[in-house]
Amino acid sequence: MWKSQHWTQTLEHEGEPVLSLSQALPLPVEERRPDRRMERYYRHLGELWKNRWAAVLYPRACAALQEARAGSRPFLPWEAELVYHVTLERDGLSSLYVDVTERQNGTRPLTVRTAETWELRSGTPKTLSEFFPPRLFWKKPIIEALQHQALDRLQGGESLLFEDVETRVASYFSAKRFYLTEEGLSLFYPMWSLGSPAEGIPVFLLPLPTSLQKLSPEKS
Predict the structure, then answer these.
(1) CA dist., res. 44 & res. 6, Å (int)
(2) What is the pLDDT of residue 212?
(3) Is the Cβ–Cβ distance between 104 and 78 less than 8 Å?
(4) How far apart (Å, rounded) are the C-alpha atoms in residues 72 and 70?
(5) What is the predicted pLDDT for the residue at 209?
(6) By three-state DSSP, how is residue 169 classified?
């Protein structure tokens, strides 16, 4: 269904590498009209990040190099990469997420994740609400389930979630942040939103909605 288009570039300042860039864009294998629509989406996404890296990240990397030189400190070239992961392909749906990670002078990397679940026949993205019965307040039981999981992790003592994570789960919830897997419905939050960046991107798994049960592998 998807093929990778690879792109790399190293930007220099006064002859010294300061920023290493790479992208692996997901592009549809087919060339039907719906596939071209999905291709345009990801090409546009790739260009948006290239523009950010050139306009924002590159000047900051150059300034960091100058600062390191002034202080006689070593400088490690900054890095930025875009990669994707296909999480489910079945019954006319394809779900995948894109991670953009930036590393600055050897510091902890920061990652931004976006995700889409495509209806392949039309080449349009599905919304989270489409997987649930058409009723009012469908978000409430989802948020409550996420809050329960987050509290379990916090009380288990093995996570770096903030103490007010229950409030944060509701405040930072977005119906756009989801993808499908064989195991269920994955909903994720941005780094920093629920806990320390060392926690990474918090991901919570919920059972597949009734409308998606046919996507689950049959149990023997």
Answers:
(1) 15
(2) 55
(3) yes
(4) 6
(5) 66
(6) helix
Structure tokens at 135: 């009723």
With CA atoms as reference, report the closest residue to 179 among 109, 98, 123.
Answer: 98
| 206 in Cβ contact with 187 (< 8 Å) | yes
Q: Which long-range contacts (CB under 8 A, 24 or more apart) does 160-167 make?
A: 160/195, 160/196, 160/198, 160/199, 161/194, 161/195, 161/199, 161/202, 162/194, 162/195, 162/196, 165/194, 165/195
Tell me the whole-structure pTM to 2 decimals. 0.91
Splitting the chain (220 residues) into consecutive groups of 10 residues, what average pLDDT does each group show?
Answer: 96 96 96 94 98 98 96 95 96 96 89 97 93 76 94 90 96 97 95 93 86 43
CB 28 within 8 A of CB 112: no
